[in-house]
């Protein structure tokens, strides 16, 4: 059964964040809030956790396009090819924020991402994922939580999310109601921003 942790962005309790970190380091899956929708996350370096994430999404891991959640742009060089100054400035002017930026991947990607030519990078404007990544010491893999409802695309109520994913994840972070608009996906592989999916962020 998933453990529900009430952590609020204005005053995140360090002991609860530490519990999340311990779970991630032990191969656990978490549900966490962001500046857009609630999302599923795990340790990008734990292949078994990544496989569990893919199973929940009912896709094969090699075909999964899980975003990488960073707390700033310092991790970019770990996962992407060298970035032009103009592209870096563009990223810096829009992050943190409700965007997923598609960039050319380098050959040092974690095992679960091997063979991917591009990678989606997110730096949410939200203290909880920021703290998790900071304390973990590296980014986490992430995928949005969709709703089965035909009208509401994304689940916003953490209690209902916890009920649905009770036996699939280890921790659900309840941070109050989430948004129901996902991030805007922007492809930067050509050097010019191309909006792939219009979401919360405005270019």
UniProtKB/TrEMBL annotation:
<dbReference type="InterPro" id="IPR006070">
    <property type="entry name" value="Sua5-like_dom"/>
</dbReference>
<dbReference type="InterPro" id="IPR052532">
    <property type="entry name" value="SUA5_domain"/>
</dbReference>
<dbReference type="GO" id="GO:0003725">
    <property type="term" value="F:double-stranded RNA binding"/>
</dbReference>
<dbReference type="InterPro" id="IPR017945">
    <property type="entry name" value="DHBP_synth_RibB-like_a/b_dom"/>
</dbReference>
<feature type="domain" description="YrdC-like">
    <location>
        <begin position="14"/>
        <end position="201"/>
    </location>
</feature>
<dbReference type="Pfam" id="PF01300">
    <property type="entry name" value="Sua5_yciO_yrdC"/>
</dbReference>
<protein>
    <submittedName>
        <fullName>tRNA threonylcarbamoyl adenosine modification protein, Sua5/YciO/YrdC/YwlC family</fullName>
    </submittedName>
</protein>
